[in-house]
Structures are given as C-alpha cells and as structure tokens.
Amino acid sequence: MSTLDSRSTPRFLPGVRLHHDQTRSQWVILAPERVIELDEIAHAIVQRCNGERSVETIVAELAAEFDATTEEVGGDVIALIDDLIGKRILRL
Amino acid sequence: MNIMLAEATQARAVAPPLAVLLELTHRCPLACPYCSNPLELASQREEMDTGGWLDVIDQAAAMGALQLHFSGGEPALRKDLVELLQRARERGLYSNLITSGIGIDEAKLDRMIEAGLDHVQLSLQDATRESADHIAGYQGSFDKKLRFAGWVRARELPLTLNAVVHRHNAGNVPRMIELALQLGASRLEVAHTQYYGWGLVNRAALMPSREQLDAATAVVEEARVRLRGQLVIDYVTPDYYARRPKACMGGWAQKFLNISPRGDVLPCHAAETVPGMQFDNVRDRALLDIWQHGEAFERYRGTAWMPEPCQSCPKKEVDWGGCRCQALALSGTADTLDPVCERSPDHARILQAAMDESAAAMPPPFVYRRPARKALPGESPA
Question: Does the residue A9 lie in any domain?
C-alpha cells in the first residue's frame, strides 16, 4: 500500500458514497455499517477525493475557497484523509 | 450483527433512526445455537407480503433513515428480495444484505447488485470447515460461504464477515482474521455471543472463560494496528465479563428499529421477550408515529424510566442502563438495571454462574435453533 503524501490521489472505496441527507440538512458518507456526518469543511474535502485530484490540489482549492493559506488547511486535510483511510472509507 | 453508528450523533429528542433492520423472514438453512431470532419463530405464512415491505421502505426513507439492513433468518429465501433492494435504491437508502451466503447463486447476486445492493455481511461460524459446519448445524455450509464470498469480491462489492465468538471458536480468532484477508473482506466483526434468546438457552455450551476472552481481545487489538487501512475490525465483548453494561442498541429507541417478519415494530431483536409490552404493527399504524409515540418505544427511551442506582449514575447517558432484555432474563424484570453492571445486586451471582459454566470440562451439547412454535388459531399443533 502506498503512503499518503501530497501527490496521493485519494478516492472512495467501492460501496461508499456521499449522500445529502435532506431530513437532517447535511452531507453524510454512507458506508458499510456506518454513517459519518460531515461538516462544511469535511464535505469540501471529501467531495474532491475523486481519484484524480492530488492532496496538493485539494489543499490549494480549499485554501482558496476558505480564504486561508495552504499551511493552515494542509494539516487538517491530511488528518481527515488519513483517518478515512484507516476506516476504509477512502483509498489511495 | 453489530450496528456501528458511533460517529453519528442525534441532537433532537426523538430524532429519526439512522438505520432500520428488516427481518424479512425467520426461515434459515442454518441452525446456529446463538441465533438472534426469537425462540418462537414466525412461519412463512405469517410473513408480511411484498406490498407491506415496499411500504415500509418508503416510510423508512421518508422519516429520515439512511441505511436498511436486509436480514432474517436468511433474507434471500424471500422471492421478492431483488424488488425490495430496487426500491431501497430508488429511495436513496444504503442497502446491506445480512446473509448466510447459502442459496444465492451468481445470477441472483448479479440481479441484486443491479437492483442496487451496496454491501454484504456474511456470517462466519468458525475458521475451519468441520467446526463451522458443526456450529451452523449444516454440512457443507463453510465451503458454500467461501464460494459466495469469492463471487462477492469478484464483483468488487464490499464484504464484511461477521463471526460470533464463544468457547468453541475463541481460539480461532487469528485464523478468522487471516481468512478475512484471504477473502478480501474490508471489515470483520468479532462479536462475542450475546446471551439472550437462543444464546441464553445455550449459555453453558457457549460461555468462554476469562482467559479465552483476554486472549481474543489481545489478538484483535494487535491486528487492528497491524492491518490499519486494510481490514477494519469491530469487536463486541461479552458483557458478562464487563464492569459496566453496553449501551444496548445505542440506547433504547434512540438510533435503531427492527421490523419482524410479521410487521411488528421492535426497539431491538429481543424486545418481544418483555412481558406485557404492546408492539404496533406497520400494517396498522404509520412507522414514524410508532417510532415517536409507540408504547414499546416510549417505555425505556431516555432516562426517565430508570431506577436507582441508575438515576444518580454519571454514566446513565453513556450506557443508557444497558440491555432491557438482559435485565428481564437475568434479574426477572426489564425495569431494573442490567445485571451485567457491577452496581446490580445480582451482578456477583450472575458472573459466578457464567464462570462456573465456562469452567466445565465438558459443555452440554448445542440446542440448535429450530422452527418449533405455537400453533396459530385454527391450526392443529404440529
């Protein structure tokens, strides 16, 4: 398994999908035996994990969207992606 | 089965359930002695029809459920399973098939995937053929399961293995983990037997020793670190050996509901064992109304029902008083604290009984789950 770095291109595993929950007015990840609720920033990150964008690109886009520096958002992006890899939601 | 929805929290008092379990049938080719179905199994003629289940799926989606678990018995014994999966997908629901893997051929699996099946949870009785077939009470079940798992993974469908653990297979947890990796499963549930219903009938045949438990726990903890990102392992401990009870179902009537083959709406699998409790049926009353206001759901929801020492316990909104059905089975009333809790006056007695059972050199034989039941009105006894 390759390790997570700025050139990694994370994507959802099969059987995992993003879903807009209209009852609770929020985005969630639907996965085997799991529902993971996403706040605005988490959603902005995971919706970009399409297997084509690199972590570097995702960080740059997020920094632009939330008017922050890449240093400020970089750690949060890596931490979330790493956590979701551990939970078998995302893969590289 | 183990519903892991810990990430999701619910703020409102009676927020809708995240997951709904459809117990489509109690019929099953297997006879596992710890089956979660009730002792009195529903017969095929009592099962709700296709229209009833389709209506349930529509209502579950409308009230805000996100996941459906198609369970049983063996859900694939229902001829309308593909049609039900299709409806779940049309309503945006995530569908999970909880199966023995027996009786589903490749063509049927393809039809289920085409209809929208998202995930398969396959039961595993043990990691070796002879033992697995003995526990299932079905010769050849192990080989059929392995073949089915291969078909699932060949189609890139995510696979969870669910292994119920007890004194006869606790030593095989390392081999179960190896098997999960070989089969390409992304999740493994190592779930110690829960002792109510059939599990309680067979407690003396199944209860592991403290040493077996500790060894299995150590294996799981090591493997979780080693296999991070490769295999997720969920672990359910046997609560007899715990100091505090589990938060059964994530709290009574807070996250989960279960619909029986007859269409009765239950807060958990075992709720029908609680005497005097009235269960509403989806054919008579709207699902949302039952969830919010049904007598069975309101009775133990939250903390108002709790006696002391629960009321003054700082953990009362952590474990929600544990399991109502276990309190009933072991302490004689569902209105008291789960006797697994060390604060229960019955705790020491129950733990000692379980430890004595686990220490027996020769456990009793299994009482296999079987469709013995009371006769219906107008029906002659079998």
Answer: no
Q: What predicted TM-score, i.e. pTM, was given to this entire model?
A: 0.90
Name the closest residue on chain B to residue A2, using Cα atoms.
Answer: B229
User: Is A92 part of a structural domain of the chain?
Assistant: no
Across the interface, of A14, A23, A32, the residue whose CB is closest to B64 is A23
Q: In chain B, how many H helices and how many E strands?
A: 14, 9
Beta bridge pairs of residue B68: B20, B95
Closest Cα of chain B to A68: distance in Å?
28
State how many domains chain A has: 1
Q: Is the dihedral of CA B144, B146, B152, B154 positive or negative?
A: negative
Print the domain residue range for A64. Answer: 14-87
Distance CA A60, CA A70 (A): 6
Total residues found in chain B within this entry: 382
Task: Name which of B44-58, B74-88, B364-378 the model is least confident about.
Answer: B364-378
Shortest CA distance from B95: residue in chain A: A32
Question: With the C-alpha atoms ordered B87, B91, B95, B99, is the resulting torsion angle positive or negative?
Answer: negative
* Model confidence pLDDT, tens digit, residues B152-184: 999 999 999 999 999 999 999 999 999 999 999
> Which residues 113-132 of B are in CB contact (within 8 Å) with A?
118-119, 121
This complex has an ipTM of 0.88
Q: B144 forms bridges with which residues in the sheet?
A: none
B156 to A58, B49, B185: CA distances (angstroms): 27, 32, 10
Closest CA to B65 of B258, B242, B220, B235: B258
Closest C-alpha among B378, B250, B238, B256 to residue B320: B250
Residue B68: phi, psi to the nearest 5?
-120, 130
Residue A5 lies in a domain: no
